[in-house]
Structure formats: structure tokens, C-alpha cells
Amino acid sequence: MTDKSTDNLNAPAVENNVNIDAEKTSKRNVIIALVVIILIVSGLVFGAIVLMRQDADTTGRIRDLFIIFMAIEMLLVGIAVIVLIIQIAQLTNLLQNEVKPILSSTTETVNTLKGTVRFLSDNLVEPVIKVNSTVAGGRKLLELFKFKK
Questions:
Q1: 54: which DSSP letter?
Q2: What is the residue range of 100's domain?
């Protein structure tokens, strides 16, 4: 049979070990990803060097294909930028037409509550406190007279 206090003491150690293992796995994955990227870039550079050593017709065709590929990529980047601009416009519209009125309404409500609290404090709480202090003072006065008799 194990003691429950011992189990509670071991629990943080187990959680720390899990966190350390997760960090090690994360670092290992990053290193593997960097190695793969370096290998891919090295392969592309080596492939480009091999292709450049070919005759002029092959190099020209590869150059033309690369130019077409870059044009398609620029088209995709342009479309992505247009979508981003539209999303920013929608966010701006949302902030101006949805969030700003909500904040204004909330500010107005808070100011109204401040006024209500101030009114209640001035007209209800302070008079009650004054009456209670007067009654307490009267009781003490009566107690003093009772003790002298």
C-alpha cells in the first residue's frame, strides 16, 4: 500500500518529466525539419548546376519553365494579397460598425451606474449611517447613566 502524501509528492515530478520530454521532442522535430530543408535546398542547387552544364537548348527550356513557374507564383501571391486586403477591410468595418458602438454603450452604462451609486450613497447610505451613529451614541449614553445608578 502506498501513502497518498507520497503520491502527491511524486505527481509534480512526473509532470516536469513530461514537460521536459515534450521540449526535447519539440527541439528534435525542429532540428529534423532544418536538416530536411537544408538537404532540399542543397539538392535544388546541385540540380541547377547540373542543368546549367547541359546544352543551350535544354538550359533555355528550363529557364523558360522557371520564368513561367515564377509568373504563376507571382499570380498566386497577388491573389493572396488581394484576399488579405479584403480581410483587413472587413475587419476594419467590423471594428467601426460593431465593436465601437458596443464600447460606447458599455461606457455609457458604466457612467450611469456611477451616477446611480453616487445618488444612493448620498441619499440613502449616509443618512442611515448618521441615524445609526446617533442611535448608538444614545444607547451608550443610556448605558452610562444606568451604570452610575
A1: S
A2: 79-149
> Cβ contacts of residue 54 below 8 Å, gap of 6+?
62
Query: 39 lies in a domain?
Result: no
Whole-number Å distance between alpha carbons of 38 and 45: 11
pTM given for the model: 0.44
Phi-psi category of 55—alpha, beta or left, where left has phi over 0 and alpha has psi -120 to 50?
beta
Alpha helices in the chain (DSSP H): 4-52, 56-94, 100-120, 126-148
Q: What pLDDT is recorded for position 107?
A: 92
Residue 111 lies in a domain: yes
More confident residue, 138 or 62: 138
**Contact of 59 with 51, CB cutoff 8 Å:** yes
Q: In sequence order, which residues have a C-beta less than 8 Å from that of residue 27 and are 6 or more positions away?
A: none
**Structural domains in the chain (count):** 1
Cell of 115: 451616477
